Amino acid sequence: MQVLKFGGTSVANSKNISLVKDIVATNADQQAIVVVSALGGITDLLLQTAALASDQHTAYKEILKEIEDRHLQTIKELLPIHSQSKVLSRVKSELNILETLLEGAFLIGEITPKLSDKIVSYGELLSSYIISEFFISKGLNATYKDSRELIKTDTAYGKALVDFELTNRLCNDFFNDHTANVTVMAGFIASSKQGDSTTLGRGGSDFSAAIIAAAVNAEILQIWTDVSGMYTANPKIVKQAKAIPHISYEEAMELSHFGAKVLYAPTIQPVLTKGISIVIKNTFEPEASGTLITQSKNEQGKTVRGISHVGNIALLSLEGPGMVGIPGISKRFFEVLSLAEISVVLITQASSEHSICVGISALDIDKAVALVNSAFEYEIERNKIKPVIAEKDMAIIALVGDNMKSHQGLSGKMFSTLGRNNVNIRAIAQGASERNISAVISEGDVKKALNSLHEEFFEENIKQLNLFVMGVGNVGSKFLRQIQQQKKYLKDNLKLNIRVIGISNSRTMLFDETGITLKNWEERLANGEKANQEEFMARVKQLNYRNSIFVDNTASSEVSDTYTNYLKNSISVVTCNKIACSSAYDTYRELKHLAREYGSPFLFETNVGAGLPIIDTLKNLIASGDKVLKIQAVLSGSLNFIFNNFNKTNTFSDIVEQAMAEGYTEPDPKIDLSGIDVMRKILILARESGNVLELADIENQSFLPEESLNTTNNEDFFQALEKYEDDFQKLYNDAVAADSKLKYVAQYENGKASVGLQQIPKGHDFYNLEGSDNIVLFYTERYPNQPMIIKGAGAGADVTASGIFADIIRIGNF
Ligand code: ADP
Ligand code: ASP
Ligand code: MG
Asked: From 3.40.50.150, 3.10.450.50, 3.30.2130.10, 3.90.226.10, which CATH number describes the 306-458 domain?
């Protein structure tokens, strides 16, 4: 004998019920009991209609109509016309009784738990009857049996307790001389000794199947549902979750107790006692092997087998000086809750005994607060204990595994993973069996917490980085292209899975939680919603992904002003925008401080020398105890390009225009030519070397004529350059005469920095600097005479994009 249970989705409509029939038919070589749920969603509708009726809302009739329609339509689609009338007439007469019950609740304006159970029982009553008739019409040797005649309970309506002795006897008596091949029964419902309908708790059809399987000593209990087994985490929330091939009864029980609703927690106990295996299978993918639940131990030695969560939890904390060393406080506290039938899901008590904190269902919190406060009224009045504190909107997440007890450091890993992702932990508990470690967190953090923990414990190496990209001009679009090209390599080789979740330019923005396909982002962005900085940030926060990185490819101060807010929410910031690091020192210091405090990297390698690893090298020197004595550098790729190409045969303004066209300058070329850009870069290097310096402290003798410096747009600027062409030619000729080249040099020494055009003689490190290259000489205590030199392409959208990319990878390896 085997028992097969099909859940709500599996029997939601005629199409699915046909799949169920196929599965049952292929199993038909031995006797089977088929336990079914109500058609998907019907139990909720029944509860709704009952609630409306008892509130005397006539709207209950509409829901009742919907319930009727779904059943009648299913019958019409499943059964051949000639067998329809019998089934339709029986179902209609059942629905009439249901209607009468609801009318009763409506007239009295009240519903008792007993009536409520009677009403919801119709879901399974109807589905099981219809399915049995369908099986018969398809030629299966099938019968229908009313579960209420076999499963007997007490009268705790809503979640009745099973009388196993009586139930087992009734089941045995019935099945011992039962010949039908397939017996279809309703899940979820049972009856009291007086014969009234009772129910076994939401999700209880699994339990019905287990009770029957244990009673008849079935060979196996098959739970057919809408996912391919019990997963490492709820697959609806964690996309990377995988079905667990084999798990122990205890692990499965712990996971389902903490919210893995694929199996109703009480289901395990009856089959565990009899050593009957459970297999969880997918009705919609019957070939997938699913999950096998048995007594056998966790052979692979895996420590954490799954992660689950229960939502809708409230925390109740009792604390006060009067609790220390006074025996009996906990007893009174738990007694109050237990007398009110409030079940405690999680308990923590600080070792100081100063406080007790429990997690209970949020539905019970108001009642619990009132009861506890009144029980401790005497102590509260005398300030020995504070009025109880309630916190709502909480959830419990639990790591579960039989082998967890023999491994140290798992809780440390769990909490540091959560901490790194800015998930605040309100309470912690470790089950006495050491089979689970649970933490109470805010409901809004559940998705992020589950995904981060899943990544940490199951995806072993693959780490997901979630990018939010602001600015898709020259640099930004190259950056996106590089990600697209490198995505596979990074995943295969660096175990980094980079997903772009949000993109914005100044006009529109686009979000896609599953990751934006980088092939056609331009088109999708153009059709995106209206861009808005604040809304963009609000969405990043609301999505609340782990390893979120905000990437700024703009040159806008409006964007750099938002960094603090991102960092405070543990969202890393990668930027090629120099404004933040080169504005007031306090801003720079604050950003670095926030990055440390919230564990969210703030990286800006491309602020100096585009993709060259200048800042990273400097950081490594300092971190390893070196000290910077002097920096000499050519840091403007654009100025280097301009002075390398400017000569007698062309004009200065033409060369500037060419540099601009090739993407070597800022959108406003004056920022480069005036030296401001180089000032910002040497300022950043000086600051990164550990000095407190402001932009105004840097000396700048500009080579530009005053008139061009005062222009306010590019057109006027270029006109001014043309006007002073002779001056530029003179600069060039003087340098040639001195056998030198013109280089725009930045320097830092003894707390002072300066920038300016210099004639560089032959033989100097800077003399042969090609094209738009940059060079930096770091003179340090370890490199006092022969400086450490970093040299290479220092401007251009491609190298800048790859520098941003490198920062992203640094965060990935963090
Ligand atoms: P049925 O109606 O078949 O009884 P349920 O809706 O009760 O199905 O249970 C299946 C659902 O359980 C899945 O669709 C999934 O959303 C949820 N679930 C939660 N945690 C897990 C988990 N760890 N593994 C698989 N499913 C899970
Ligand atoms: N139909 C019931 C419910 O929705 C029982 C079940 O499906 O397991 O809770
Ligand atoms: Mg279920």
From this structure: 3.30.2130.10
